[in-house]
Amino acid sequence: MRRLRTRLAGALVSVLTLTLTATACGGPADTGSAANSPTAKATLAAANRVEPLTGTARPDLPVTVGSADGKKVTVERADRIVPLSGSLSEIVFTLGLGSRVVARDITATFEQAAKLPVVTRAHDVSAEGVLSLKPDLVLAETTTGPSEAMDQIRAAGIPIVVISPAQGLDDVATRIGTVANALGVPAAGKRLTARSEARIAAVRKGVPRETKKPRVAFLYLRGSASVYLIGGKGSGATSLIEAAGGVDAGAASGLTKDFTAITSEALVKAAPDAILVMSKGLESVGGIEGLVRIPGVAQTPAGLDRRIVSVEDGVLLNYGPRTDQVLTSVVAQLYGKGGDAR
Question: Given a cut of 50, is residue 67 above it in pLDDT?
Answer without folding.
Answer: yes
